[in-house]
Amino acid sequence: MRKLETRTIVVASHNAGKIREIADLIGPFGFSAKSAAELKFQEPDETGTTFEENAAIKALASAKASGLPALSDDSGLVIDALDGAPGVYTANWTEREDGSRDFPWAMQKVETALQDKGATTADKRTARFVSVLCLAWPDGHTEMFRGEVEGTIAWPPRGADGFGYDPIFQPQGFDTTFGEMTAEEKHGWKPGDAEALSHRARAFKIFVETCLEA
Q1: Is 164 one of the annotated binding-site residues?
Q2: In a 3-state reduction of DSSP, which class is residue 37?
């Protein structure tokens, strides 16, 4: 495993919500970071069929464009009753014909698909959020970190915090959705803590243990 020897990195994302969450996680470690959006890097085509492949595509594009290490995230909602959909195509499910992203519409699409499958009780609505972080260097070296959190799909959506599909995801062991949690509650982890709640925080914890800690 290669250690990260600089605290200057690029967050390889154009997603405002994702950039904010990653910034919240890396902040305590003293990182100086700019996003691919701020640097006006072109978004690469995500042609992979796994979270790992797409994370690598994004991180490598920003690392090579900037000459700095780049940290990307590819994440999605995996629903058992829908045979793993939307999965790596989670963002695609939000796209309208004009190219805009509409998360309320996408959440309704998820619910309609579950209803069509007869998945009306919690035991038939199991799901997980998956996050794969990729740290890439300009020379092409990559390190991968995967985090998952189990839960169920709630309906109707609840909460205005978080972003994306958070209002319909209720993590296992909780009565609230990610959309009803503060950032601190959702991540459930900070340096020195043993546990992490969100998929992204769990992946980030592995990143810290692998690439930052001596």
Answers
A1: yes
A2: coil
Would you say 193 is a known binding-site residue?
no
| Residue 163 annotated as part of some ligand binding site | yes
Calculate ∠ Cα 81-85-89, nearest 5°.
170
Structural domains in the chain? 8-211 (3.90.950.10)
Q: pLDDT by residue for the chain (214 residues), tens digit each?
A: 888 888 889 999 998 888 888 888 888 888 888 999 999 999 999 999 999 999 999 999 999 999 999 999 999 999 999 999 999 999 999 999 998 889 999 999 999 999 999 999 999 999 999 999 999 999 999 999 999 999 999 999 999 988 899 999 999 999 999 999 998 888 876 555 557 889 998 998 899 888 886 5
Is 15 annotated as ligand-binding? yes
Cα gap 47→12, rounded to integer Å: 16
Give yes or no: 74 in active site.
yes
What strands, in cross-sheet order, belong to the sheet with 169-171? Answer: 32-35, 8-11, 70-79, 126-136, 142-153, 169-171
Q: Which residues contact 124 (CB under 8 A, 6 or more apart)?
A: 81, 114, 117, 118
H or E element in which residue 108 lies: helix 103-116
φ/ψ (deg, to 5) at 84? 90, -5
- Which is the catalytic residue, given 24, 74, 161, 175? 74
